[in-house]
Design brief:
The structure is a homodimer.
Chain A: H1 4-11, H2 15-23, H3 30-43, H4 49-56, E1 61-66, H5 73-87, E2 91-96, H6 101-113, E3 118-121, E4 138-141, E5 150-153, H7 155-168, E6 173-178, H8 184-198, E7 203-208, H9 214-227, E8 233-235, H10 239-251, E9 261-266, E10 279-282, H11 285-300, E11 309-312, E12 315-317
Parallel strand pairs in A: 1-2, 1-3, 3-4, 4-5, 5-11, 6-7, 6-8, 8-9, 9-10
Antiparallel strand pairs in A: 10-12
Helix pairs in contact in A: 1-2, 1-3, 5-11, 7-8, 9-10
Chain A binds a DNA duplex through helix 2 and helix 4.
Chain lengths: 329, 329
DNA sequence: ATGATTTGTGTAAACGGTTACATATACGAA
DNA sequence: TTCGTATATGTAACCGTTTACACAAATCAT
């Protein structure tokens, strides 16, 4: 491995000069700068990030903690983040928490030990005090926080929207699928929908679930039609569950949206391809990731944050699992 | 930040002793070991991974290079990898290459500069010589290589399978969607299907595409029915494209599988929820990731590899976008 | 009792960068 | 000419670990 000393010797200068050339700091005469650059090229030298990190006490790494990359919502967040931080020269250390405190802790330690410059977390943190001791900035994504900068969509509003739209379109016996209790955004949606439903004249049934994943979605879907067969409107905890519901409804030969309406949450890319195409509450995932990354970049550069909390709007995406309403006027 | 010296001083021993306790190397008397451990607890000391890395010249990080995490096939690979390496105490630096050589190079550099202990790549590497200079082991995933350890599914066989099954089920005017030329696995599938089709008595049409992503899938789908409206069987380049095709077919009121059969590739989780449920060639993605990680672990531990190339079987998953054939016997 | 070996601990030199500080020259102003 | 400042470069300390080497005490074999 070729080091800065090798370059210095070859170019006939000191390591300090090479370092100065590398970082464009201090004074360097143009001739020597060129000479050093050439030597770097010639020796194919590339500075050791670890050594740099040790001295400066920060790396160019950013920690990213997600619940589960296998859920299609999160890769979009991740991609938004990556695209943004990459352009600033940072790289990501990725961790899946599976919403388990223990795994989250492991990664927090990893991030600390590796001197990350900052982190973005989209997971549990029921205990926000976990993050208190950290020496680097943290941005919460897909979760709100008063203390920390955070980027999230308005889950409560989304939940309300879903309920309003499904009621407006005529569902009377509504099933509300409640996501895992420890997943905060899922609870917010749920509360949003609940607040609307409880003030409406619709009957409703709440199905409690403990996962948002593919492998379980089918189970919840079956459960609904067993326990509440006469339901004519389902507000799902996310698009995956909604898709499973749709699938099960088809198996049972229910006609969507005529006999049964379904609304999802997230608007993952594949939702527009479901059959019928899924009506859903859209969260701008890629954009959320990007914004979170921007916020973190500002924290890292110690620029003042104009606003610590960024709440992005949710929108109702009307597709074919809900009935049409004719507009007035 | 509390360092090893703080611990040493507090425990009344030398840094060497603390280090020995930490790494369970050399001789340490039981009393002092306990005393040091207690001090570590008391001071809440956690060793600086960067410093360790600098001296030992290796980190506990592994580089992972994927084409695009947004394509649902890759998160599954990633998850398989993470689960495996995590249990060995390693963490992942993630990069998306978008199949662009330039981005790939950037990440190769990042990995080197950060002293990763190894890397797994599932992307381009048209120029395998890129990987020659590296000081750490590399495992190819979803791509074969004679030189390097690699884990992949039998794409050619998968392509053949798809063609055979669709022909066996009676399609006569087949559309073969050819994935991007620079994506090797896509080409292998294509070649596999092509080899079968060209020896069959079916007519077929090849649609060339340059992406496997959601945003473009719809475009290819529309193109097919414009250019080859009488087609009665479509072999898609992956499940995403297949799903888009299905969606478009429905819009055009084609009856699947009666008038049109469709076969995908990958078996991403959502495929079983498409309508009709997608028949596809399954690649065991999670398992592939896991195997690749296992291979890398062995390389890192310098254990001999029993086999450098691991080829996992593909299987035809019969769902409802293909017609049934009655078994003989 | 004596030497060899095992056990236990400490000192200091790496690892490969960055940067504070020292030094030296060039240049412009007074 | 002299001083102050801008320019240019080098020396060495430092970041926080690991480990080679040195040394001493304890244990063992003869």
């Amino acid at each position: 491995m070729v080091t800065i000393r090798d370059v210095a010797k070859e170019a006939g200068v000191s390591v300090a000069t090479v370092s100065r050339v590398l970082n464009s700091t201090g004074y360097v005469k143009e001739d020597t700068r060129v000479r050093v650059m050439n030597t770097i090229q010639k020796l194919n030298y590339s500075p050791n990030e670890v050594a740099r990190s040790l001295y400066t006490r920060e790396s160019r790494l950013i920690g990213l903690l997600l619940p589960d990359i296998t859920n299609p919502f999160f890769p979009q967040l991740a991609r938004g983040i990556e695209d943004e931080v990459h352009s600033h020269g940072f790289r990501l250390i990725l961790g899946n928490s599976d919403e388990q405190l223990e795994k989250e802790l492991t990664y927090l330690q990893t991030f600390t030990q590796n001197h990350v410059v900052g982190m973005i977390t989209a997971t549990t943190s029921l205990a926000q005090k976990l993050y208190e001791g950290l020496t680097f900035p943290v941005v919460f994504l897909d979760r709100s926080s008063d203390q920390y900068p955070s980027v999230y969509a308005d889950g409560f509003e989304g939940g309300k929207l879903a309920a309003e739209e499904i009621i407006k379109r005529g569902s009377k016996r509504i099933t509300l699928i409640k996501g895992p209790v420890n997943v905060k955004p899922a609870q917010e949606r749920f509360q949003g929908s609940l607040s609307v439903l409880s003030q409406s004249d619709a009957d409703f049934y709440v199905l409690n679930t403990n996962s948002l994943a593919f492998d379980d979605a089918q189970k919840w879907a079956k459960e609904i039609f067993q326990k509440y067969p006469e339901t004519d409107g389902i507000i799902a905890s996310n698009d995956i569950v909604a898709t499973a519901v749709l699938h099960e409804a088809f198996r049972l030969e229910k006609s969507v949206p005529d006999d049964l309406q379904v609304i999802g949450f997230d608007d993952i890319p594949q939702s527009r391809f479901s059959f019928p195409a899924l009506s859903t509450i859209r969260q701008p995932a890629y954009e959320m990731g990007k914004q979170a990354a921007c916020l973190l970049m500002k924290c890292i550069k110690k620029e003042p944050l104009i606003q610590k909390q960024v709440q992005l709007p949710v929108t109702f995406i009307e597709r074919n699992t809900t009935r049409k309403v004719e507009e007035h006027g």
